Amino acid sequence: MGTSITFKRPDGKDANGYLANAARGNAPGVVVIQEWWGLCDQIKGLCDRFAVAGFDALAPDLYKGKVVPYHDTDAAGKEMNSLDFMDATTQTVRGAAQYLSKNGAKVGLTGFCLGGAVTIIGAVKVPELTAGVVFYGIPPEQAAKPADVKIPLQAHFANKDDWCTPALVDGFEKAMKAAGKSLELFRYDAAHAFVNEQRQSVHDRHAAELAWGRATEFFKKHLG
């Protein structure tokens, strides 16, 4: 349904991504950020779903063409740990937001796992954004403080998660509330990465559909 595109980062460099357009011409935009596996077919499929739901969706390729197979967590960890999160967010993700906003459209940001952390950094560092939806990812405080978040956030977390742990989620929720920030937070009795239907070991269809409905409603409310 979508297509591979090249777009400009603020620094003038080229970045690549997968774009799926909504049927209507003046649709709002959603930037979709990959998990630690890279820009795989599952993330492209989510862009297609956003397009069906009425949004132009663009997933920037933060790993520059590299996609890690699901069984290789060591390689995925290596890719994630070698990613410059600040450059990825303030340049590649911001470039994607600028691309989607060029006709005056409002733009939201969402991401999964690694992309959830990037979404929170983007909520602090990317001025083109109007709203964000976080899926099971939180960056370290030195990367993005909850007090500095500039847009309304909705967040979805798994109770069975040893990476983005319930304790980490509680701390994030507390810090957002203390700073008076707009946050809708949902917890699911599911495993980390429960939205990914290609990974049957963790996918929870009920939780995934519930979260998807909440996310699209939130974006419709804030982006139009």
SSE blueprint and pairings:
Elements: E1 3-8, E2 14-20, E3 29-33, H1 41-52, E4 56-60, H2 73-82, H3 85-100, E5 107-112, H4 114-125, E6 129-135, E7 153-160, H5 166-178, E8 183-191, H6 205-223
Parallel strand pairs: 3-4, 3-5, 5-6, 6-7, 7-8
Antiparallel strand pairs: 1-2, 2-4
Helix pairs in contact: 3-4
What characteristics describe this protein?
eight-stranded mixed beta sheet; 6 helices; 24% strand; globular
What does this structure look like?
- The protein has 224 residues and is α/β, with parallel strands linked by helices.
- Helix content is 37%, strand content 24%.
- The chain has an 8-stranded mixed sheet, with helices on both faces.
- The longest helix has 19 residues.
- The radius of gyration is 16 Å and the shape is globular.
Distance between the termini: 23 Å
Mean pLDDT: 97
Question: Measured on Cα atoms, how large is the radius of gyration?
Answer: 16 Å
pLDDT < 50 stretches:
none
Strand and helix order: EEEHEHHEHEEHEH
**Estimated helix fraction:** 25-40%
Biggest sheet details: 8 strands, mixed
Structural class by secondary-structure content: alpha/beta
Number of helices: 6
* Biggest β-sheet: strands ordered side by side in the sheet: 1-2-4-3-5-6-7-8
Question: Tell me, what's the shape?
Answer: globular
Number of E-state strands: 8
